[in-house]
Automatic annotation (TrEMBL):
Keywords: Amino-acid biosynthesis, Aromatic amino acid biosynthesis, Lyase, Schiff base. The active site is at 111 (proton donor/acceptor), 136 (schiff-base intermediate with substrate). The keyword Lyase applies. This is 3-dehydroquinate dehydratase. GO terms for biological process: 3,4-dihydroxybenzoate biosynthetic process; amino acid biosynthetic process; aromatic amino acid family biosynthetic process; chorismate biosynthetic process. Involved in the third step of the chorismate pathway, which leads to the biosynthesis of aromatic amino acids. Catalyzes the cis-dehydration of 3-dehydroquinate (DHQ) and introduces the first double bond of the aromatic ring to yield 3-dehydroshikimate. Coiled coil: none annotated. It comes from Pseudolactococcus insecticola. The gene is aroD. Transmembrane segments: none annotated. 3-dehydroquinate binds at residues 30-32, 62, 179, 198, 202. It catalyses: 3-dehydroquinate = 3-dehydroshikimate + H2O. Belongs to the type-I 3-dehydroquinase family. CDD domains: DHQase_I.
Amino acid sequence: MKIVVPIMPKTLAELATIDERKFTAVDMIEWRADFMTFSELEQAARDVKIKFSKHEIIFTYRTEDKVETQISATDYAALIERFAADFDYIDVEKFTFPDVVLPENAIFSYHDFDQIPERLPDILSDMIAENPAVVKFAGMPRDFADVLRLMQDTLAASEKAPHQTFVTMAMGKIGQVTRLMGDEFGSSWTFATVEAASAPGQLSVADILTLTKILEN
Ligand SMILES: O=C1C[C@@](O)(C(=O)O)C[C@@H](O)[C@@H]1O
């Protein structure tokens, strides 16, 4: 399981203060560009790539979780087109913006902040059908049965589509097991924290490393 750590700087100055030495044990950086103003994105993209030149980097502009970042379909498509080739992966909210053409390195990304939907198997199938580099789903479980269902549905999807990379997680405290046991149920990356969390239930990188080591033995 690869460890991905989100960074969420609000300004160029804040980006400059991030200490990249804290990220040595991390496989991938997710730059959450949605915390910054549009006018700073060009410069920030250059700075992020210099600062994390040794890491794979995901470009993410998240609109699903806050009203302030809900942008027009045209602006969103322009953003994806502008930044796709500059980063190793680019997060695309294809269900929200169905007209966006998925770049080769697209993470087809979908969040449900209320539930783990009953129709998750169909959702995963619809995502696989678009042939993205990565299928990513994050949902909010209401009980542990929901967490088990997410793991089971991911396992079934990964067995049906063995060449597809999946990243799935149940958010919140009861979902934390999904952030540790991805290898067992077909999820290839785990999102973890070095400083601030970008979603509820994320564990620290140090905890992930300790706990996955224990679980492996
Ligand atoms: O999609 C995801 C997963 C995530 O929501 C999580 O639950 O860890 C964190 C986000 O930063 C990332 O874009």
